[in-house]
Predict the structure of YIP1 family protein.
Amino acid sequence: MTQWVENPTGGRDRGPRAIVRAWVEVMVRPRRFFNVGVAPGDQAPGLVFGVFVTVIEVASRMTFGGIGVGDSLSSKLFALIVVGLFIAPAVLHLTAALQTAILMALVPERGGISETVQVIGYAVAPCLLAGLPFPEVRVACTLYGSILLAIGTSEVHGTSLVRAVVVTAIPSALVFGYGFGGVDALATTFQSLAGVVPW
């Protein structure tokens, strides 16, 4: 599950430019991206991408008061290090293991765990903006992330989009609904709308 390939065929490039390019591509042309950007065994770029997006999102929430970890800079840096080195990779791999178990039951001919890690890592791309202090933005980011996860699963594992939606329902709920706060943001948005709409 933690295999890194030195010279993979069809995998992503490394480095800051590759991360930026991957973000743009997966946001704009997800089907093409998942077809050409995910390679068997080459999970390192996808893992780094997912961790990077998660750290940015957490840092944004800290900045705007969405997460309280203390007022000192050192405590915030320590929290980001813990998220980047331990929490985000662990959650990504556990979610990939869960999705792989569901895939085994519903998609007999499928890709491997490494591909699933990459798909989940790249699917969180919209959540780069989810840390902004606007629940509507968070809802949009998490919904689009769920869509990307379904599209990526369909393309990489060679199954229908309908079946991919079923396969990714629980992982999406965990990652986007709770991990990135989509459920709370949706509830906040509905409460705001209920307050301004005359009944």
About this structure: DSSP finds eight helices and no strands in the chain.
